[in-house]
Design goal:
Elements (H helix, E strand, L loop, with lengths): L1 H5 L3 E4 L6 E4 L10 H19 L4 E5 L2 E5 L2 H14 L13 E3 L6 H7 L4 E3 L3 E3 L2 E3 L2 H12 L4
Parallel strand pairs: 5-6
Antiparallel strand pairs: 1-2, 3-4, 7-8
């Protein structure tokens, strides 16, 4: 079954054109087992990171990951994620990553530690929710609704 689905690249047809895009990476769109395959592949990465950086608390949901802890722990986790991830099919995207810092006086330190990542003390949306200071967290549901009104 897996060989039939993934043994050769898939031809993706772009509606309204004669163009065909050949897809040789990732899971096939619509494959019932795609998330299972992805999860199995990602578990190796998760276990390795937990072993290497045990004090960094992590959360994973599909292809989203988050790390929390002290600066050194999170930095070690992030560096290992960027190094090992691509070898195991996981590609961290610093430009889509946000580091939430509790203490505003440490912003420059964290910006130098994580130069390719957005650093904020204001909080940030995460998986349809919000992580950050209490005031911003309480305001988030209302700010998300305003465009709908």
């Amino acid at each position: 079954y897996v060989q039939n689905l993934y043994g050769t690249p898939s031809n993706l047809i772009i509606r309204g054109t004669k163009e065909i895009l050949v897809s040789a990476e990732g899971a096939t769109q619509g494959c019932n087992l795609a998330m299972d395959f992805y999860g199995i592949g990602t578990m190796r990465l998760i276990h390795h990171l937990r072993k290497e950086v045990p004090d960094c608390r992590t959360s994973w949901y599909a292809d989203d990951s988050a790390g929390a802890g002290k600066a050194k722990e999170v930095k070690d986790w992030w560096d290992k994620l960027q190094d090992l991830g691509p070898r195991l099919g996981y590609f961290p995207q610093p430009e889509k990553t946000c580091l939430i810092v509790k203490d505003p006086s440490k912003m420059d330190y964290f910006k130098s530690l994580f130069p390719d990542v957005q650093v904020t003390t204001e909080g940030h949306r995460y998986l349809g929710s919000f992580i950050g200071p209490k005031k911003a967290t309480e305001a988030y549901p209302y700010s998300a609704l305003i465009p709908l009104l």
